[in-house]
Amino acid sequence: MTVLLIDDDAEVLDSSRQTLELEGFAVEAVTEPEAGLARLGASWPGVVVTDVRMPGMDGFALLERVRAADAEVPVVLVTGHGDIAMAMRAVREGAYDFIEKPAEPDHLVEVVRRALAHRGLVLENRRLRAQLAEGGPEGRIIGRSPAIEHLRAAVANLADAEVDVLLFGETGTGKELVARSLHEGGRRRAGNFVALNCGAMPDTIIESELFGHEPGAFTGAQARRIGKLEYAAGGTLFLDEIESMPMHLQVKLLRVLQERAIERIGGNRTIPLDLRVVAATKVDLLRLAAEGKFREDLYYRLNVVTVPLPPLRERRGDVALLFRHFLDAALARSRRNPPPLDPVLLARLAAHGWPGNVRELRNVAERVALGLGDGLAPVGVTAATAGMAGSAEIEPLADRLDRVEKQLIEDALARCGGRVGETAERLGITRKTLYLKMRHHGLSRDDFAEE
């Protein structure tokens, strides 16, 4: 990531360059706007910090040229003649921020850091959109944390394998998304992907939903009906919340998995099936089997391959990326303009516990897109203490910020495999500063080193 500095005053330009380089930023400094514009492009990884009053081309004209090249490149305007009207014009014309000269070093660094983080999210989101457009088994699975990289590799490896798969993960971790990725990435992609939530079907009709029935099989069965199993022939059957399936149907499902054939309810003809079964659960099926609540033989039949799905709290480095992805989708549906990505909001997202996982994050993005706020409890306030304002203690601000900083550093180290130099660069701080913060928080790079 690069900071492009543009100012016709060489002395001011050199001062700003030194300020940013001392904080670890890569800086390109030019006195001619045209020279700076030549560096830009749709994939340029950086931000522009430019003076407003310059001969030939002023900052507003430069802003227009930059937005023509890529409307999502953050442009920070700096001027010694600022006023409210100029600041409002800057925001209205699409500037990322507006700074008055002489720029306070700390303020300049903070604005640039936020702008670079914003640009990084934009570029990563574009890469993910291209990946989704290209398809492939891993295209739907968004994230760059080690846990998600491992999940994508597992999906790519299993997509063409003719084995049944058991997905294990908490509610909202994306089990159906992974099941669809397995289907679309394999040779069965031309067949049907049939999803059935075992927990949402009443016991009285789930058997008919699975196996289908012949006319007259029971009261109200006036015509033949193809069941989910038969409809999924040639494709994939996804059984969500498999732990909720009634015991008497578990016996029948086990037989189907063993023989790959069914008989419709009320029928005598055996119908062969060529299908793949992907089951999903949020509980320990082996423990349920030990308690007599799930058939142990069915568990072992389903458990040819188990793919664990990580909860969102274990891949916090993906939160901002996922949020931007869901926010873009929500904005497109509601035809609204994107709101600025507030660093306070990003810090709140990073600190949240996400008990509802990715599904909860998507709902937050929907609310933000509609201008309804994020709906999250303040940092340090849990669901148990929310609404107890009279008795709950408020966590000191310094403690909250300290905890958020530690989490952000942990996430960055994990994503960079413990490489301190790369981590410091991506966080926009010096190696020395990062080492001091790691010592303060009791962090060791060895805990994050890639194996």
Automatic annotation (TrEMBL):
Residue span(s) of domain Response regulatory: 2-116
PANTHER family with a match to the protein in the record: C4-DICARBOXYLATE TRANSPORT TRANSCRIPTIONAL REGULATORY PROTEIN DCTD, TRANSCRIPTIONAL REGULATORY PROTEIN
Listed Gene3D superfamilies: 1.10.8.60, 3.40.50.2300, Homeodomain-like, P-loop containing nucleotide triphosphate hydrolases
Keywords from the named record: Activator, ATP-binding, DNA-binding, Nucleotide-binding, Phosphoprotein, Transcription, Transcription regulation, Two-component regulatory system
PROSITE patterns: RESPONSE_REGULATORY, SIGMA54_INTERACT_1, SIGMA54_INTERACT_2, SIGMA54_INTERACT_3, SIGMA54_INTERACT_4
Superkingdom classification of source: Bacteria
PTM sites of type 4-aspartylphosphate: 51
Listed name of the protein: Response regulator
InterPro entries xref list: AAA+_ATPase (IPR003593), AAA_lid_NorR (IPR058031), CheY-like_superfamily (IPR011006), Homeodomain-like_sf (IPR009057), HTH_Fis (IPR002197), P-loop_NTPase (IPR027417), Sig_transdc_resp-reg_receiver (IPR001789), Sigma_54_int (IPR002078)
Stretches assigned to the Sigma-54 factor interaction domain: 141-370
CDD domains linked to this entry: AAA, REC_DctD-like
SMART domains assigned: AAA, REC
